[in-house]
Structures are given as structure tokens and as C-alpha cells.
Write a structure and sequence with these properties.
Radius of gyration: 24 Å
Strand content: 25-35%
Mean pLDDT: 84
CATH topology of the largest domain: Aminopeptidase
Low-confidence stretches: none
Distance between the termini: 60 Å
Largest sheet: 6 strands, mixed
Amino acid sequence: MTRQLAISVRRDHTLIGLFEDQKLVDLFLDRPDQESAVGNIYVGRVVRVLNNIQAAFIDIGLPKDGFLAGDDALPTPHAPAKARHGALGDMIKTGQIIPVQVEKDEISDKGKKLTMDLSIPGRYLVYFPYQKHKINISKRVEDRKERKRLRDLLTEVKGSDQGAWIVRTVAEGATKKDLQYDARNLLSVWKETAARIEKAAEPILIHRELTPIEQVLRDHYSDDFDRILIDNLRAKQHIDRFIRSLQPKRLIPRRVTEYMEPDELLTTFGFKKELERALSRKVWLDCGGYLIIEETETLTAIDVNTGKNVKGGSGMEAITRTNLEAAEEIGRQIRLRGIGGIIVVDFIDMKSSKDIQKVVSNLHRSLSKDKTAFDITPFSEIGLVQITRKRTGESLITLLSEDCPHCNGNGRILTLRG
């Protein structure tokens, strides 16, 4: 399998596409006017504490207050010992200055979702300074020997630090030096962040998460990339420096990235076509079937249809083939569109339990490439599959489109006259 990263820097946005075997599997959008705050750490002032719903509103220096749920709060140094198991009002008080981190950007009219359980992500590790001594290994690292090896290495590398750590999936096969470099960097970042928190006396940004391009490189770049193509020389130089900072002890090709003319890059990788497809309500499958994807505020509904010209034989063979191909494409579309929350999929009815299991396995395999946490509930009694995926911000269609002024966002135009 060939893996390539294509980055197109335009005047008002940057497109970042991850391709596997010439097929777009992940799409990231960076727009200066819609900058994400997820991962940013702020010092905020508690504006209101609502004990009846166990929530608080926090002023973090932005136009809209952030929202802190009781489950995401931690007792402050001056809180009583019973606070962890008591009301939110026992943990924090109105007017108090507290450190918080953004978990989700503003969605619709809801403010940013905050947490007091701060985390600092790295390439191989994630560090939680306020949690007690604990090491967790990503569930996607399935080999028991590898899990034990990583746990032993991190125990040695982190030394006497009493925080909690998560070993990320990308750490599979990593060396002691890799983990050591990452751990030292995270502890250094936290030391600087903690010092700023201690000095802060009013709402202010303390630590900014990496830019979208840097996040993609941190989370996805590996030695098996065939090429990284970019159409902006200044951004190319920055990316070269950033990649070298990820793995300073390894031999990295002198030409980390390749420059390609803007129009050539967009044409070669079909960015515009893929964007149009990711915004379309109907997505065609190679077999002749298609998906209908409807996003609403509360959930996303995906309907699978056989279409007119399915190439999978007749009867149940055609249905099974359509469902299998749909399961693969659904995982890709969810990632491309940045769909989060509850997703309900209506596959075409199948009789065979063996075929049903194949479809579920295909869906799992397609979504297993996703860096965002998800869960799949198998077929219900009425033949629906439910997917829950962590929502961190607006979906692609919300970011790139707006309600129609003629139909008020309903997607239909009234033809009634008189």
C-alpha cells in the first residue's frame, strides 16, 4: 500500500489530504477564520456554578463562555477532601481562577466544552499531569507481548513522575529512545505550562495546540510515507523542520517533501472532486449502489440503496455486495466529513447471519483507521446499526456551507403557488 500526504495552501484555507493507494482516506481543513481551539489550555474565571445540573460556565477570555460539566471538574487545592465525590460547587467557586482545556469547539449555539483534566499529547505518548500514577496502552495495540514491552519501556523512561500516561497506537514498534525523547518533551512542555498557570491572574491562553498541519504530521507521519507533496515553498520549509523535530535521532531523507505547482497538485489528487463528494447528499458506490447521508443537529442518518445497475449478481448476492461496499465507504465518509455524535445506518435487509457479520466486520475494519474514538452497536431488531463517534467540532459540511436563504436550510423549495 502506498501512502502519500498532499497539502494545498490556498489564500483563505489549507487542504490536507491523506491518500492510501491513490484514494483519499482522511481530509483535514485549516481555515484561519475558523481556527479550532481543541487542545488549547486556558486559565479561566468561574462565572456561574449550576449545582442543579452539575455544570459551570467559565470565562476563558473569548467572546462566549466555555461549558464545564461536573464530570470534567477536578477539586482545586483549597477544596475540601470530600469535594471529589460531592457537588460541583464544593470543587470550584464563582470568581475562582482555574486551568481548563478545550475538549470540543463551539457547536451550533453551545460554547466550547472544557475539562480540568489537562492532557499534553505527543507523537507516541499522551501525558495527564493531574491524574495519579497510571499507564494505559492503546486498545488498538493488540499483541500482548508488545503491550508489555511498551509498558516496561515507559515505566523505565518516565522515572519518578507521578502523572498518568497513555501510549498511543503509533508507538507500536517504537524504541526506548523514541519514547524517551517524547516523554522528556512532554514533561518540559508541562513544566512551562504549569509555571504560566501559577502566574496567571485573569482569563488568558496558556498553551496553544499545534496547527492542523503539525497535528496531522505528528499523528500520521511515518517512515512508510512514499511522498509528501505541497504547493507552497514557505510551508514546505516549515514542514521539513517540524518532521525533523519529531524523530531527531533517525535518518530522514534530505528531501522530506516535494514541491508541486498548485493547479497540478489539485488536479493530480482530485481535491475539488473529493470535496464535492464529501459535501454531497448522495454518494455513489462502485457496484452501482449509493448512500444517502443526512446530517441533523442530533444525529446523522445513512441509508444504503442498491441503485439500478448493481454488478453483484442477482438477489441476495447483489444486496450483500452492496452492503459490504457501503460499509467500507461509510467508514471513509465519516472520517472525511468529520461526522460525530450518533450515526444511524440503515443497511439493506439480509437473511444470512454470516453475511451480516461480514458487513459488521467491514465496517469495523474501515473505522479502525480512525484516530477519533468510536463505538459500533451491531444490527438491531429492525436492522439498524448505530455508530457513536466522539465529536470535537463542526462537521465539514457545516464548515464549508451555509443555510440556503430561499428554503431556510430545509433543502427543499416550495412549489405551491397562490
